Amino acid sequence: MNGQPSWSDYGQQPSQGGRGGQGNLNFVSTSFEPGRAQSQPTYNTGGYTSATTSFDDEPPLLEELGIDIKSIFKKTGAVFSFGSTADGSLDSDLSGPIVFVFGLGFSHMLAGKVLFGLIIGWTIITSLGMSWLVNMLVGPGGDIGMHACCSILGYCLVPQIFLALFCLLVGKSIACSALALFSILWSTRVASRFVTVRLKAKHIPVEEQRSLLAYPWLLVFSMFALLSLY
Amino acid sequence: MDPYAGQGPYAMGGGYGAGGSAHQGGFEGGGGMGGEFSGGLGGPSPAGNPYDSTGVNMNMNANGGQGFAKEAGNILGSSFSPLAKTAVAAYGEKAQQFMQNRMNFFSGPLTKTLQYYFNVNTKYVVNKMRLLLCPFIHKGSWTRIPEQVPGGFHFKPPRHDLNAPDLYIPAMAFNTYCVLSSLIYAYSSASSAVKASGSQFSPEKFGQLVWAGLFIWALEVCLLKTAMYILNSNQPSNIGVPLFDLCAYGGYIFVHVTTQVFVGMFAGHMGYYVALAWGTLCMGVFLVKTFKRILYSQTRQASKQHSKRQSYMLLGIAMAQLPLAYWLGKIQ
């Protein structure tokens, strides 16, 4: 009991050598000190000479991780409004899409098809392809990064989630095929709205190529819809 | 620079788009392809754990060189503690070299060459599809329009010239072929022939379709290249057709294959064979007319003894479309 560090030992200054061999625990203790905001341990590892800030100055966790809930809701709202309120959403984040991708995978899993890896792999490859294609079509100077394409693709998978759940409940039928068509067109419209909003923000004329930009998205979402249909 | 500024940390587009020049656009492209994405998935390390050096390295690699350290901090926004920002700046040199290797991909000569083939608009696509599906009623000429730019002799881009080859239509047609075939497989359990085994579609089948299609495309390009080489061997002048042109001409067959598969969905076997014959005929005519212009545009004088060989070769090209299209369309 004397040599064993207990939870009450945390918060002691690291210079106290009484507790032997606590090198590792010191590091942990600085992170788990809720009340001892004043301790500023100096670290001797090379390169990190500036001290870290105290716990009170740290931003909230979501802000640190880069998850902006308001922005996610705004973009999801743009998806639900068939793209008509897509004008403000120019930042691309991946946290919303990750949730939707896993939601889609979960919906498929309820139907007995475990397709998580497939969906993620297809998302990556198709967003690579789409960002390359948009870069080619629009010409020099206009480029949507792969990050943005991935984000657009992720948000537009929301209708596919509805399709997967509907096909799970109703089974293969005419209604399922009709809803598939509808959700593909819905996703395509939202995706092309997102893309044109971004291109317009870079002052690139897209009027002549609007349908050309929309058609590949149609193909992409057809593939995702097919996953629900077989 | 307030590290806790309330910017969206994944506002990569906004952060990189601050400088609006074309060069910056190129960098965005290179950064966007690899850098942004890995940055996005890696995520910033929480500020309370400075010993996670792997996390810092990931961010460093993904987010910019020395000159862009500030921007990098900005771009990842509110999420960085000052500790990580100094780490980013310290590793900036290495990161900048890394980014420059990536940058060359999107602003190099390959991209510029390819962008010529994608310089299309909707009007061109519609007219070209009409030309491909029914080349008999085309009243205009088949030659490409040349233009003299300083530095050489180029053809006009597809946007301004209907006869220029483009790569958008073949790529989209290839993709449509894959998607349509997958659709047919997925719905094939409705037909009486395969009722017992359920739907034939599986995601692996899509991959198989893609590889088969690419193989046929490559075969077609090889065929055209061989034809060009044979026709070229006795000519004093050098007929060099760029490889991407041949890829474009070879890819046009996918338009016909897609239409025949589409017709076959509704009209059954008879309709499929009619569409197959029509598609092959159209493709043959299109290729013959196109290549005749290419050959004649390069030779100064039409030499009689070679023209016979040329016409046989062109006829052979036209007839070779049939087995390729048939093999691609063998779905039902």
The H-and-E topology of chain A, N to C, reads as HHHHHHHHH
Q: Hey, roughly how much beta strand do the residues of chain B contain?
A: under 5%
Rg of Cα set of chain B: 26 Å
* Strand order, sheet with most strands of chain B: 1-2
Question: Can you give the mean pLDDT of chain A?
Answer: 77
Relative helix content of chain A? 55-70%
Oligomer: heterodimer
Largest interface: A-B, 64 and 74 residues
Average pLDDT reading of chain B:
67
Overall form of chain B: globular
Measured on Cα atoms, how large is the radius of gyration of chain A?
A: 25 Å
Question: Main sheet of chain B?
Answer: 2 strands, antiparallel
Distance between the termini of chain A: 63 Å
Count of runs of 4 or more consecutive helical residues of chain A:
9
Number of helices of chain B: 13
Which ranges of chain B are low-confidence, i.e. pLDDT below 50, for 5 or more consecutive residues?
A: 1-80, 192-197
What proportion of the residues of chain B is helical, as a percent range? 55-70%
Layout of helices and strands, plus pairs?
The complex is a heterodimer of chains A (230) and B (332).
Chain A (H helix, E strand, L loop, with lengths): L22 H9 L29 H5 L3 H12 L14 H16 L5 H23 L7 H10 L2 H13 L3 H28 L8 H20 L1
Chain B lengths: L11 H5 L5 H21 L10 H11 L5 H7 L6 H9 L1 H16 L1 H9 L4 H12 L12 E4 L2 E4 L12 H20 L15 H30 L10 H9 L1 H46 L5 H25 L4
Antiparallel strand pairs in B: 1-2
Summarize the structure.
The complex is a heterodimer of chains A (230) and B (332). With 230 residues, chain A is mainly alpha-helical. Chain A contains 9 helices and no strands.
Structure description:
Chain A has nine helices and no strands. Chain A has a domain at 92-229. Chain A is globular, with a radius of gyration of 25 Å. Chain A has 230 residues and is an all-alpha fold. Chain B is mainly α. Among the domains of chain B are: 71-107, no CATH class; 166-329, no CATH class. Helices cover 66% and strands 2% of the residues of chain B. Chain B contains 13 helices and two strands, in the order ααααααααββααααα. In chain B, a hairpin with a 2-residue loop joins β1 (146-149) and β2. The radius of gyration of chain B is 26 Å and the shape is globular. The N and C termini of chain B lie far apart (64 Å). Chains A and B meet through α2, α5, α6 and α9 of A and α1, α2, α5, α7 and α8 of B. Chain A: The chain crosses the membrane at residues 114-138, 144-167, 174-192, 212-229. Chain A: It comes from Chloropicon primus. Chain A: One of its GO terms (cellular component) is trans-Golgi network. Chain A: Residues 1-10, 24-50 have a biased composition (Polar residues).
